[in-house]
Amino acid sequence: MILLDPNARPVIGHRGNRAHAPENTLPSLLEAVALGADAVEFDVRITRDGVLVLMHDVTLDRTTDASGAVAAYTFADLVGVDAGARFTSNGRDFPWRGRGAGVPRFDHVIEALPRDLPLIVEVKTPDATPALVQAIARHNLTARVIVAGFDPASTFPLRHGAVALGASTPDVARLVAPAILRQRVPQPWYRALCIPPTRRGIPVPIGSIVRAVREHGVVTHVWTVNEPSRAQRLWRQGVQGIISDDPALMLAARRGV
After folding, report:
1. Under 8 Å between Cβ of 158 and 164
2. pLDDT digits (tens, 9 = 90+) for 129-164
3. Taking the CB of residue 208, how many other CB atoms lie within 10 A of it?
4. Cα distances (angstroms) measured from residue 139 to each of 43, 136, 178
5. Which residues are CB-neighbours of 206 under 8 A, at least 6 positions away?
6. Strand 202-203 to strand 198-199: parallel, antiparallel, or no bridges (unpaired)?
7. Looking at the whole model, is its pTM more than 0.70?
8. Torsion angle defined by CA atoms of residues 93, 99, 100 and 106, in that order, rounded to the nearest 10 degrees
9. Model confidence over 12-36: pLDDT tens digits?
């Protein structure tokens, strides 16, 4: 899989084609695919009745015309929610409002995307993990998915299995000091890092971290990168994947590396 290839430089659509379409919706993901993204990344949560859906935030408030916690809704409650209602690129126009971009269930997304498309799935809460484990088996996704989660509890049930996992936030934090000091790090349990260029305003030593994990076959994907020059610098530092809101821009940037 390209997402685990240390010699690849995949462009990964962050929540789809987020710069131009409402995040974590099927239209946004399909746009990223149509543009030529090598993979897509999206977030999952669980509804009150146990349905796995795509949503980043705890609540619906920021991205939809509804409000309240995702976990307080049944999936039937979410069917009429407009997930494009608040999308805007200039703060004035809302081109996706009323166009049917809803809160999609995981199953529907997988069925609509190309069968060989690699995926990074971010589990936003440990409560969603059991449903995700079942869905991965149901759709035979093991060979083309990385499952990541900031909270170690979100991916713990998948450890020692066949599904490739991303490091949690505490795991990445533990890498920083030995990476900077050029000390050898122990063999990690994860196969990928999905890390930001900065953390709370402080630059993350990405080049050092890449060097520290490379000998263990761990790949590094960086989010969220929307400036071509930054993407090119990261690729030259040895980063594999660029996770971007604007995959078309990153695909063009890759040609210049």
Report:
1. no
2. 999 999 999 999 999 999 999 999 999 999 989 999
3. 17
4. 17, 5, 39
5. 195, 197, 220, 222, 234, 237, 239
6. antiparallel
7. yes
8. -60
9. 999 999 999 999 999 999 999 999 9
